[in-house]
Every structure is written in C-alpha cells, then in structure tokens.
C-alpha cells in the first residue's frame, strides 16, 4: 500500500469525508497516516467550500491508536503531530462515524469530534495505563467532561472496553445505528449542518469549544460577549425564519 492510500479523502456537496484506511492494521496511526491526516485537516481548514467533515475508519476498526510496532522502533517513525487538536481547531463541525473499536489514540480522535455517531459494533477503550503511557492528545481532560469524572477514571484505570450501548447511555455517543446505516446517518447529519448559516455554525463551534474549557461564569460572559458582537439584518432574519418554517412543515409530514 502506498502512503497516499492510508487516508481516503472525498469531497462533495460541501462535505469532506475522511476515511482512515489501514484496515489490516485496525487503522493504527503510523507516521504516514498521521502526516496525511494532519495535511488533510490543514487543507480543510482553509477550504471555504467544505462546510462539514465526516471522519470514519475502513474495515472493522475506527482507529486502534498509535502504531505500537512503529513506536517500538523509533527510527521508523516520525513526529507524533496532533490531529485531534487540529480537529478541535477546525472552523467546520466534525462528525465522527465510529464504525468499530476506538482505542487509546483512536479514542482521543473520537472525543475530539464535535458529534459522535456509533455503529452497534463501536467500542471504546482507554488502554494508556496498560501500555505504561499517559494520554497526550486530550483524553484525560476531555473524557471526564463528556461522561463524568468517575466513569472516565474507571476506563483509564482498567483499560476495559465500553460498548456502544453504554457509550450512548453515558452521553458519549449522540446515537447508535446499525452498521450499514452508519455512513448514511452521518452524511445526512452533515447535510443538515451544510444547510445552516455557515458564519453562525463556525461561531457556535468556536464558542462552545472555548466555553468548554472555562468555568461556567466565565463561559456565560464569553457567550454574552460573542452574542453582543453579532447582529443579523431584519431582512435576513425574515428570510431565514421563512426557510425554517418550510423545513419544519416538511419534517412533520
């Protein structure tokens, strides 16, 4: 397999779909894949035609984390890079379509998505402690905020797997769908995002992401500041309201 094959990049109708493509290695993040993913995210960040991103994996895994074979031989690898940070910094929303196992670094990729849809085959595990490692892409801080401190500690201290069903119950997954419905569900959700006012979507993502890291009082002050700096023209509001009403009527038919 050529390095250019380790990540599939499809762009159409305002949606970029990224597929981690090392199925024989459970999409483990070797340097070639990390480099390709990092470069793709940089390209997406500067592409005004892309309004939403879907991230998934080929085969039976979403991502098994860093390539441990490569890590055992440092001369064969390269810089770790930080694709999860790049995903959080993207102006466009990122939908994670978790098709299978998401382990350690793969778990960190998943928790850096803005929305997570899982197939009924999805499973998550934080195996850092079993490997003698410490999370470096944000899992130790983001996961407790997503599912609660005690639940995150249970996963971190045991390395046990979390099923799709429990991930949904704990608030990690937005929804769980049959495996065959995963990509259609993610693409449909991306299309809903594409239809919204893009300046507002991007401002909302930045506001939520920045506020996520603040105490509640400071986050509320940030919201007030951002809100005060944005005003739509009356004509725009009327036009958008009419479109919203039409959409509402279509959805209840």
Structural account:
With 253 residues, this protein is an alpha/beta fold. 48% of the residues lie in helices and 17% in strands. It contains 12 helices and 10 strands. Strands 1-2-3-5-7-10 form a 6-stranded mixed beta sheet, sandwiched between helices. Strands 4-6-8-9 form a 4-stranded mixed beta sheet. A hairpin with a 2-residue loop joins strand 1 (7-12) and strand 2 (15-20).
Secondary structure: elements and pairs:
Blueprint: E1 7-12, E2 15-20, H1 31-45, E3 52-57, E4 61-63, H2 68-71, H3 83-89, E5 94-98, E6 101-103, H4 105-111, E7 115-119, E8 123-125, H5 128-131, H6 139-147, H7 149-158, E9 161-163, H8 164-169, E10 175-177, H9 182-194, H10 198-212, H11 216-228, H12 234-251
Helix pairs in contact: 1-3, 4-6, 6-7, 10-11
What is shown here, in short?
The chain is an alpha/beta fold. Helices cover 48% and strands 17% of the residues. The protein has helices at residues 31-45, 68-71, 83-89, 105-111, 128-131, 139-147, 149-158, 164-169, 182-194, 198-212, 216-228, 234-251, and strands at residues 7-12, 15-20, 52-57, 61-63, 94-98, 101-103, 115-119, 123-125, 161-163, 175-177.
Strand content: 15-25%
Based on helices, strands and strand pairing, what is the structural class?
alpha/beta
Which spans of ≥5 residues are poorly predicted at pLDDT below 50?
none
Total DSSP E strands: 10
What about the largest sheet? Answer: 6 strands, mixed
* Average predicted local confidence, pLDDT: 91
Mass-distribution shape: globular
């Amino acid at each position: 397999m050529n390095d250019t094959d380790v990540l599939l990049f499809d762009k159409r109708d305002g949606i970029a779909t990224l597929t981690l493509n090392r199925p024989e290695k459970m999409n483990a993040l070797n340097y070639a894949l990390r480099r390709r993913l990092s470069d793709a995210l940089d390209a997406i960040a500067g592409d005004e035609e892309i309004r939403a991103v879907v991230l998934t994996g080929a085969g039976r895994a979403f991502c098994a984390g860093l390539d441990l074979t490569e890590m055992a031989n440092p001369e064969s690898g390269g810089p770790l890079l930080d694709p999860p940070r790049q995903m959080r910094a993207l102006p466009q929303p990122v939908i994670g379509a978790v098709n299978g196992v998401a382990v350690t670094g793969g778990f960190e990729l998943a928790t850096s998505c803005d929305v997570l849809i899982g197939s009924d085959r999805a499973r998550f595990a934080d195996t850092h402690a079993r490997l003698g490692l410490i999370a470096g892409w944000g899992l130790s801080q983001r996961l407790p905020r997503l599912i609660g401190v005690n639940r995150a500690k249970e996963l971190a201290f045991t390395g046990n797997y979390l099923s799709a069903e429990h991930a949904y119950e704990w608030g990690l997954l937005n929804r769980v769908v049959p495996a065959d419905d995963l990509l259609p569900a993610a693409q449909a959700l991306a299309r809903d995002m594409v239809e919204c006012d893009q300046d507002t979507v991007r401002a909302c993502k930045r506001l939520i992401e920045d506020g996520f890291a603040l105490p509640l009082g400071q986050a509320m002050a940030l919201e007030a500041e951002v809100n005060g700096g944005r005003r739509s023209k009356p004509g725009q509001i009327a036009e958008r309201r009419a479109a919203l009403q039409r959409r509402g009527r279509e959805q209840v038919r």
